[in-house]
Write a structure and sequence with these properties.
The protein is mainly beta. Helix content is 11%, strand content 37%. Strand 1 and strand 2 form a beta hairpin. The termini are far apart. Pfam families: Cu-oxidase, Cu-oxidase_2, Cu-oxidase_3.
Length: 569
Amino acid sequence: MARPFLFFHLAFALCFLLVRYLLSADAAVVEHTFHVGNLSVELLGQSQVITAVNGQFPGPKIEARDGDTVVVHVVNLSPYNMSIHWHGILQRLSCWADGPNMVSQCPIRPAGGRYTYRFNVTGQEGTLWWHAHVSFLRATVYGALLLRPAPGASYPFPRPHREATILLGEWWNASVVDVERQALLAGGAPNISVALTINGLTAGGYQLAVERGRTYLLRIINAALNYQLFFKVAAHSFTVVAADACYTDPYHTDVVVVAPGQTVDALMRADAHPGRRYYMAAQVYQSLANATYSATTTGLVTYYQGRRRRQPPPPPMMPGMPAFNDSATAQRFYASLTGLLQDGGAPTVPLHVDTRMLVTFGLGVTPCAPAQTLCNRTRGSVAASMNNVSFQFPTAMSLLEARMRREAGGMYTRDFPDRPPVMFDFTSAAASADPAVMATSKGTKVKALRYGETLEVVLQNTAILGAENHPLHLHGFNFYVLAQGVGNFNAHRHVRTYNLVNPHQRNTVAVPAGGWAAIRFTADNPGMWIMHCHLDAHLPFGLAMAFEVDDGPTPDTALPPPPPDYPQC
């Protein structure tokens, strides 16, 4: 009996290796070179020198399939430090390629510094994007990252006739580096942008031609620095099929809401009157109660005509947009998304939780630093914090390198608190009068997690210095959004509202103004992963923290050493 048993196992092993070979044969290496440098752009009647990739604004589109390896050689010819983040890529065992400056790497130095990012696309399909993760430079250094199904696989929705990438951004008639520097010196908010853009063009510049009766996949990316956006197309509606490259149950709507860092895949059927033209519009959504600024930009949807038009078309139709402060519409969109259980599959959300955290976040004040020469010494500087800790980026080496060298001492501490130091009515504006509540401490504190540990985090927005919807982005993971709501989180009442069957997954959650969101994920990706607000005005003021995830017990669950060209500080 031993020989047939041995033969069976040998045959099984050979079949397994053959299948792996055939699967790997379909995988490809997608390779790009990014030359980062100065580019002169003419917008709004003014010439502006910006930082861009390969002389393009927005930058090059990267397209890959599930299972591919992506290799991007970055050559920094700009006058600024640079790093590139592949927003939403899980970076399984490749944290060295994640990109946040001084977290997973030191910057790529100006005047010719180089670094090659290499990562695998594993179990991901949909729309992501890449952007600079230094200063405000992502205002112009960004592009789409499109992940298609593996060869032989298909979308879990009807195949569209065509697709269009819609990159929504902001524009300043000034150096964005100077805009950030001025805000930091003054300890206040940066100057607002002067326009919104669609694919790098201001109002009316972008056009999408469609055929009546066809279905189009719109890959909508909010690359704006500081504004959530409403997106509509006049006389058309959408079926949302994915968010942050995670498939959703089909959700029918005439408005898409997308926060900075988020993406939405939406099917649009071209079923309007073909003799007209239609504006697509992106409009600022303001969740801050006393905000008055709003802005709108447009593109144009036109229909192919079978014969030459004898008369000029009527003026384009503008969609009816929500009020710029319509939080009810925004929250209804965010709360309506659910995750797609493909092929009738069982729920995948982890039910056992090892660690629970309550993380409050928002704005506060701190004494002006000596370098803040324009700061009001009486009022102090704006600070942002999570659990009253204002995150400070290291300067001598990246957090990930310090983890590898086991040199946490002096670089960071593993004492990020599981709960805020003071419990109070987080959504009350009156809390701003309490110095104990307003005060923040500065530090580089991380939360250490065992490999395989399941974590639930309740993200509680505060009303200190104003309640505002904050998009929080977690690197290295997709998380389940179990529930979200307004007011203070109440465990006895709100845990019962958790969706443990088909919650949608994201990498960036828009936490309601004066509200909360409960997320859950399993820490099965070793490395150092930052979680931060994707309103870029808040990141340099400290609205961030990091998770340090231990290596697993086997070689294939441990982070490999860094590549040989890893940047040094």
